[in-house]
């Protein structure tokens, strides 16, 4: 595949992913961890959380949310970094209102990897890094 | 009889930089110190050494500026790649800079800057034998052009691979997000020494 094909594929995966991810975290939180690899890591405002059990527990304690995404960008990750496992960097920016809290702006980035199954390809989150823009206030 | 089924409203406390290990911390802080000393030097050609031949880079700014009255972001607008708004595949592809020469030429055209390294907060997002992905958040000011002295905030994600010289990092992906700084960020920018805003120590890039 040439770079253009990789870049187009990254955009398709990123657009679809962003719709599904934020809809799921807002409305179907209990199935959110299905989007993560078993070995996925989340760094949430400097707090590291890794593995599905810890992620499930973390998302249960996180207040319900209303995300609004305003910026999405993506890049195909170079194969030398991923040992040829198709991977996309997805970067988002937007605002989130957690129940009982004021609305805040945030930046988030994900590494998505394509898990090739016999009959389909499923994209999963390998890493997730989230930070409020005003995290220190 | 009481039942505790109230939904949570308390957020986990926010913390400073996450490095994972002292080794990674030293490596990434050294990289950032070197990288931004060249980036802010007035000539970014020297960054050629930091990038992989097939590196790619893109920039985005907020769709609507959060405070358009303070400092226009117009210098960045033409390069902003936001696939949520830009649906034209040709334009999307043109805004994704690819190969080392194009990436550095692109960075060289951006306004000249001075970064406040004391403002930096770093998160190591992912690490494998072949990949290091980290996010850097902080503020800088523009030091020339029509927005001279405007303070901006940035959030940047680098993905690097080990270079031939294993102690160094070689960037394969670079994703830069720039916005206007908030009043609070402007107030705290370039104040030495940097205040410690959280229980975790703020990283300092001085040796």
UniProtKB/TrEMBL annotation, chain A:
Subcellular localization, as worded in the UniProt entry: Cytoplasm; Nucleus
Gene3D superfamilies in the record: 3.10.450.50
Keywords, comma-separated and alphabetical: Cytoplasm, Nucleus, Protein transport, Transport
Keyword Nucleus on entry: yes
Entry keyword annotation includes Ribosomal protein: no
Pfam families reported for this sequence: NTF2 (PF02136)
Domain of life of the native organism: Eukaryota
Gene Ontology CC entries for this record: cytoplasm; nuclear pore central transport channel
Stretches assigned to the NTF2 domain: 13-132
Gene Ontology BP, a term: protein transport
CDD domains, per the entry: NTF2
Summary of the function given for this chain in its UniProt record: Has a role in nuclear-cytoplasmic transport of proteins and mRNAs.
Protein name: NTF2-related export protein
Taxon lineage: Eukaryota, Metazoa, Chordata, Craniata, Vertebrata
Gene name linked to the record: LOC100028638
């Amino acid at each position: 595949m040439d770079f253009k094909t990789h870049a187009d594929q990254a955009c398709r995966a990123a657009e679809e992913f962003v719709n599904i991810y934020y809809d799921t975290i807002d409305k179907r939180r209990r199935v959110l961890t299905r989007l993560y690899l078993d070995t996925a890591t989340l760094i949430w405002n400097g707090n590291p959380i890794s593995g599905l059990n810890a992620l499930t527990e973390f998302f249960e304690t996180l207040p319900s949310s209303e995300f609004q995404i305003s910026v999405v960008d993506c890049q195909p990750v170079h194969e030398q970094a991923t040992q040829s496992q198709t991977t996309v960097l997805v970067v988002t920016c937007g605002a989130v209102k957690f129940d009982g809290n004021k609305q805040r702006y945030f930046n988030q980035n994900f590494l998505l990897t394509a898990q090739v199954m016999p009959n389909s390809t499923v994209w999963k989150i390998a890493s997730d890094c989230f930070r409020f823009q005003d995290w220190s206030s | 009889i009481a039942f505790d089924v109230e939904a949570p409203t308390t957020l986990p406390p926010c913390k400073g930089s996450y490095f994972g290990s002292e080794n990674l911390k030293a490596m990434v802080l050294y990289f950032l110190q070197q990288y931004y000393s060249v980036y802010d030097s007035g000539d970014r050609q020297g960054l050629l050494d930091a990038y992989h031949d097939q590196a790619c880079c893109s920039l985005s700014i907020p769709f609507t500026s959060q405070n358009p009255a303070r400092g226009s972001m117009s210098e960045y607008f033409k390069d902003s790649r936001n696939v949520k708004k830009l649906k034209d595949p040709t334009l999307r592809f043109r805004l994704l800079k690819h190969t080392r020469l194009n990436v550095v030429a692109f960075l060289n055209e951006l306004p000249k800057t001075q970064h406040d390294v004391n403002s930096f907060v770093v998160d190591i997002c992912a690490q494998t034998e072949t990949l290091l992905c980290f996010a850097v958040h902080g503020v800088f000011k523009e030091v020339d052009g029509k927005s001279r002295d405007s303070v901006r905030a940035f959030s940047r994600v680098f993905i690097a691979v080990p270079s031939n010289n294993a102690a160094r990092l070689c960037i394969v992906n670079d994703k830069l997000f720039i916005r206007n700084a908030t009043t609070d960020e402007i107030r705290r920018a370039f104040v030495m020494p940097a205040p410690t805003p959280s229980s975790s120590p703020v990283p300092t890039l001085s040796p």
